[in-house]
Amino acid sequence: MSADVTSMAEGGLAPRPDHVPADLVRDFNIYDVPGAAEDVQAAYAAIQQANPDIFWTPHNGGHWVATRGEDIMAMQRDYHHFSHKHIVLPPMPEGTQRQIPLEMDPPEHARYRRPLMQSLMPAVVGELESKVRDVAVEAIERVLPQGECEFIEDFAKILPIHVFLELVDLPLSDKHRLLPMAERSVRGRSAEIRLQAQQEMGGYLLGEIRARRENPGQDLLSKLVNVNVGDGRISEMEAVSYATLVLFGGLDTVAGMIGFIARFLAMNPGHRRQLVERLDDEAFVKHAIEEMIRRHGLANTARVIAEDFEYGGVYFRAGDRILPANLWVGLDERINENPLVVDFDRDRPVHAAFGNGPHACPGAVLARREIRIFLQEWLSRIPDFHIKPDTKPVLATGMVNGVLRLDLCWP
């Protein structure tokens, strides 16, 4: 992209700031990555290979992009310079309620995050396992006799949503209302679309939040909306923001990862057979899950530069936005040899799918458990499956990558 293009704000492009060198400007749009319709992560890997380690794009308000694993992991940990103050692109309208606790930095962040961590500890997740397994088995047995299914609607969304709605004690019947909101929130291409989805979710939750602030229960939602932050509990507005963010995360991200893994296994019978033959080998399955997570990164959260400073030979100015996309860590050949190849014998799959540092995903334990249960229950019943002829998986990019449709069939 020429410097002339970046000097104009036409066509939705931000003008190039004075401190951004013209030779670091690239045509990158997180919502329109070339090749993503065939393979989202391979498309990102191509961006990684073809561009400087750090570059600037005029799309989505104009922002920096960090593509290399070591830089991304450093930025995830260094909240002093790379603040979580705003995490989405393009930025939300000025004055929008921040997403709690994601758009907070330590030490404030820790006080809000604590009840979420406590509710998703390994011991608590262990108690949920039988419920997760029951939901998985029921969903699989429903589609098994049909010989085919639309995997995302018939399984990938069902498993995490049933479990999460039970965690927050909301009626399962509301899932059809909530899922479209989650989709628009995490993959809406404009700030207006995402804001509307958040407002709709806030409106849905407000009555529940007021009831549970009046009479708290033992469910996760009650704990979130009554969290004490040192000088009393959070305000009603903060409670709505916190609950909205957690619900969107619980309704979408695990479904996305399960979708990518199912698509991979449908297209790679050799890997599928390896898993089928060693389903009882807990260490092998655990390792295989990490390798598939490494290859199929999801979340992309932006940061705000907190002060003027130089990093890696690039001069950042306070207020600049930067995208250190999580999935590039797992795809970096400087860290993982032949990163686009899924190798269940890889010594140590390195990724940042769940983030690093103080903002590492508190739901990581539950996500891994759900993926493991999916593999165990699905592969023990449907060991041989593939993508239905004359169909094509529908993939999406954005702040959270995902699989929107996946038609599978089996003998």
Structure commentary:
47% of the residues lie in helices and 9% in strands. With 411 residues, it is of the alpha+beta class. The radius of gyration is 21 Å and the shape is globular. Mean pLDDT is 90; it is low at 1-11. The strands form four sheets. A five-stranded mixed β-sheet has the order 1-2-8-5-3, covered by helices on one side. It has a three-stranded antiparallel β-sheet with strand order 4-12-9.
Q: What's the end-to-end separation, in Å?
A: 50 Å
**CATH level-1 class:** Mainly Alpha
The helix-and-strand class reads: alpha+beta
Q: Give the total of beta strands.
A: 12
List the helices and strands in order.
HHEEHEHHEHHHHHHHHEEEEHHEEEE
Q: Radius of gyration in whole Å, from Cα?
A: 21 Å
Helix content: 40-55%
Largest sheet: 5 strands, mixed
Strand line-up across the major sheet: 1-2-8-5-3
CATH architecture: Orthogonal Bundle
Number of domains: 1
Strand content: 5-15%
GO molecular function: camphor 5-monooxygenase activity; heme binding; iron ion binding
EC number: 1.14.15.1
Protein name: Camphor 5-monooxygenase
Pfam family, one: p450
